[in-house]
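Quick one, T. Sequence first:
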Amino acid sequence: MSEEQDAIDELKNTALAARLPWRDSWRAPLGHMMTWLARFSARTNLVGNHTPRVVVSEHIVETLVVAAVCERLGLQPRSIVDVGAGAGLEALTLALWAEQAQVTVIEPRRKRSDFIELVADAMGVGKRVTVIRDTVPAWRPPTRFDLATSRATFDPETWLAHGRNLLAPGGVVAVHDAANRALGPNDAQPGEWASSAFMAVPHRPAHRIVGYRQFGP
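Structure tokens:
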């Protein structure tokens, strides 16, 4: 069995144990993602460590926690934006999870945005993934989104402020946060959010995802 498939087996076990979303149909597209990441990383530094187990533990599991938090908040997004997406691993994984969603990826660096477009096609989600070479807050969205996420681009408070400006009514901002920070499910701008939920990232107790749902239908 390949290193990629071993890592995906571990991902499945982690997802089932932590009650994260999982579908066996994701195995092949995730394998394509990891294969292309290894190929591109030989020429350019897309992520800090592109080995399959690290990609799973530091990127894909965390993205499945974003999906689980959305499910806790009753959100089934039809439009998603990932800001400062880097190699796009979160956006591409969210495209697998939200099968009907249009995913907009904001990434100004050409090599990374080219990689995202190529791998989205290889994974079979290319028709639903749009890559925009720009930055927030300079970029002005033509529409609002059901889910806004950003990983390792802003501090949590700054991203919460930017992210809420991208939301449609009832949408969710996903905040990648440190578990020991003051920003939490009930203490960020009290009264300004309809609901919130949070979840620790499995095997990474210092990290959690907090989701804030905007008022609206």
